[in-house]
Amino acid sequence: MKDCILHQEWEEIHQISRNKGRSASASKLVECLYRSDKEYWPKTFQNALYEAKHKTLGELWDLKADDNADVEMENEDESSGVFQMQISEEAESDNLCGSSSSASDTFQQTRYVLRKARSYQIELAEPALNGKHTMICAPTGSGKTFVSIMICEHHLRNRPAGQTGKVVFLATKVPVYEQQKKVFQDYFKTDYHIDGICGENASSTCADIVIQNNDIIVMTPQTLLNSLNNNGTIISLSTFTLMIFDECHNTTGNNPYNMLMFKYLDLKLKQGAHLLPQIVGLTASPGIGSARNVGETIDYICNICASLNIEVISTVRKNVKDLEEIVHKPEKIIRFVGTRPQNRFVDIVSQMMSKAEDLARQFHPIDGLSVMKNQCYGTQKYEQWIVDVQTKAVVLQLTNKEEESRVCRALFICTQHLRKYNDALIINEDARTKDALDYLKDYFEDIKNGNFDDIEQQLASNFEGAL
What we know:
It is a single chain. By secondary structure, the protein is α/β, with parallel strands linked by helices. The protein has three domains: 1-64, Death Domain, Fas; 119-325, Rossmann fold, CATH 3.40.50; 342-466, Up-down Bundle (phosphoenolpyruvate carboxylase, domain 3). 51% of the residues lie in helices and 9% in strands. It contains 18 helices and nine strands. The chain has helices at residues 7-20, 22-34, 41-51, 55-61, 63-68, 119-129, 144-157, 174-188, 204-212, 221-229, 256-271, 294-307, 320-326, 344-363, 380-394, 401-430, 433-448, 454-466; strands at 83-89, 108-114, 134-137, 167-170, 194-197, 216-219, 242-246, 278-283, 312-314. It has a seven-stranded parallel β-sheet, sandwiched between helices. A two-stranded antiparallel sheet has the order 1-2. α3 packs antiparallel against α4 (55-61). It is elongated and about 90 Å long. The termini are far apart.
């Protein structure tokens, strides 16, 4: 398994297994495999399953079985096809001809026929064809991969006399890397030298040779970053004349994309922009991060653009109808649902919550247990407050251990009831009052069947008296 994931991840998975069990560690393993940068990990993982005598899982993972399940599609428009190529698509799928196809959680291999770019694809490529640092933002299935091929071909064929171009296409995941390398090789055939490299085991020397001997290099960003950090012969991003970032919205935080752009912008300040490659980013959406309003959204997108040195965000504006023929946008129907004019349920439950809080204060000043402020009933913030109070109450320490046990139990019961009341208010907000009331009835019915002490009896009496 260490040939599939990093040693640090392997140790982390073992730690999770010891602390949280097999299910949690299995989830972590899947997460690590999903972002693995090791070239042959799918086959290695399959072999490991068989060696561990997990035959059923090995058969489910069988790569050949996946291939047999591939779906073949051909563009029926004979006027638009002159050659075939195969391309695998993930959730962010970029089929080359722009034909609409359903997204899948798994990679599917699909056959397409292509002749010429559509009008909206030419529009998307235009700023980059003019030499601008461009973020191409278009829906999934619109054919952004083909747009990047157009830009790449134009870039290599229109270099100034005596200058040669060198393009690097960066893909965030190994399956996407393998897909895009094959797409470029199928398209350009013998016109240009094309190769790729990825994986933790790719030495800096190997990466340097691949970069030096090819016109178009497909890589994962971490592989390129490793090559730059290891002081190989490729010591600068100025080696390239064009860099294409697939799924460029990932250029944030400590992502390898962002680490590469730190180096790029550092060189820009030291050497000047004329020595650096043109940047082209591909994305279905730049995202909004944790923005809560329009202003914060604009700031977030501007930060992404600044990180990528972007001058232009290219979207389809002139040829929207052409795009809509290929990518079918679901119709949105928005209906306003007003709040209930008056809701006695909320008033009654709020009164019972106030009584439950007062009862808890008779045992201990609960307001001092949490640094968080008590919030309005029926909100997530109140839930956070009561959970914090409940957590602190469990570890409360008093000199008299018998009294400590009595107080801790009383506080736990009161806070548990407060959580259920708060849940009921949230249910009432989004569903029917009947659903919220049934939720509380079921809860009180359950506690009656358990250890029903004096405190619970008092709280239950308050509830029954309000019915």
